Amino acid sequence: MSEIIDDILNSTRDSPIFKNREYLLPDYIPNELPHREEQIKKLASILAQVYKGSKPNNIFIYGLTGTGKTAVTKFVLKIFQEKIKNFTYVYINTRQSDTTYRILADIIENMGEKVPFTGISTAELYRRMLKIFLSTNKIIIITLDEIDAMVKKHGDDILYKLTRINSELDKSKVSLIGITNDVKFVDNLDPRVRSSLSEEELVFPPYNANELEDILKRRAVLAFKDGAINNSIISLCAALAARDHGDARRALDLLRVAGEIAERLKCNSISTEHVEKARIEIERDRVYEVIASLPFHSKLVLVSIIYGTENKNTMTTGEVYELYKSLTKTLGTEIVTQRRVSDIINELDMVGIITAKVVNRGRYGKTKEINLAVDKMIAIKALIENDERLASIWNR
Ligand SMILES: Nc1ncnc2c1ncn2[C@@H]1O[C@H](COP(=O)(O)OP(=O)(O)OP(=O)(O)O)[C@@H](O)[C@H]1O
Q: Which residues form the AAA+ ATPase domain (predicted)?
């Protein structure tokens, strides 16, 4: 066994491909962010109020995934903290810390105080947070990343509370930065929260192929050995990611995974075939992740579609609902309305798991033609590996 591990370690150490793979990992924060100068400038000029000892306006940041929202925000906040004494910030990813309790606990811990594991109510945590805020003379920026995920699960109560917090302090010193990649999400917020959070707005447009190429080139120099990659491979990764929606994370992933595949195959350089394999591997992982994290009834609707399209090409919403209903009966679970199932179908279509095309059937009115848009085996794997109840359906 140990030889296997030695082999892996040796090949990693002697990799003909990577000089420093870490530069391509998602959590690496680069110290330069090309093509985001405008956003950096705008964010810095809003935050510059802290120089005068005043609280900056709240800021709402939105843009599609991988457009540099998190990287730019962290980059600017870090520099401000280094340069300005009476300033501090808290960064919370609310997909991970998605309850009011967790968010308050994170704020308190980020401000340097401990939170015991159990035995404290949310109200008590809130009081403790206020106490910390009252005792500091610093301006505090609270950054809530991926706020749509949290609000969808638990509502915007905590956002409302935080937007009002200055009225409970001795002076205005807390500002919020809310980040989301779901533009439509803004419309669902309580209007008071929305107007308060959007005192300033910052939009992150997708990167185009040239911009992605530039970003990748700068990383490739740090990450790869000389001769392991050429410009045409970088252009290809940039073009593929730009075609998707200008997502820098995706472009960097493509480059890294293509490098890993080349390494695994003991090649000395990355080829277009490696990039193609990487694209398929990443897409497979994405599909798996999306399906694994779906809510239970969305998974059941997907199971119905997988079953229903087994022997025919497409299904209608009504047919999906019938199958869904019988599945809930088999499993003895509660049932949602046909209207909700229709919404779920739209959601699955939006994330690219199924296609739901509206077709006009003349005097029979309009209906949807629903079909699976991803590899069936991956979909089934993601469903049964993440839910025992669904695994039981396939084992029947
Ligand atoms: N201009 C840039 N230069 C270099 N790297 C970048 C740039 N923009 C983004 N990246 C890199 O791309 C990846 C994704 O960026 P980031 O996490 O900031 O995206 P995001 O807009 O916050 O996405 P999401 O909404 O999915 O969280 C990170 O690894 C980041 O370092």
A: 55-208
Does residue 67 have its Cβ closer than 6 Å to ligand 1?
yes
256 lines ligand 1 (CB under 6 A): no
Tens of pLDDT, residue by residue over 316-362, are 999 999 999 999 999 999 999 999 999 999 999 988 899 999 888 77
Q: Please tell me whether residues 219 and 363 are part of one structural domain.
A: no
Q: For the chain, what is the domain count? A: 3
What is the extent of the structural domain holding 61?
37-204
Query: Of all atoms in ligand 1, which is nearest to the CA of residue 218?
Result: 4
Q: Which of 22, 29, 249 to mutate to test the pocket of ligand 1 (most atoms within 8 A of CB)?
A: 249
The interface pTM score, or ipTM, of the predicted complex is 0.97
DSSP 65-108: TTSSHHHHHHHHHHHHHHH-TTEEEEEEETTTS-SHHHHHHHHH
Q: Are residues 190 and 56 in the same domain?
A: yes
Q: What is the pLDDT of residues 23-56, one digit of tens each?
A: 998 888 888 899 999 999 999 999 999 988 899 9
225 domain-assigned: yes
User: Which residues pair with residue 256 across a beta bridge?
Assistant: none
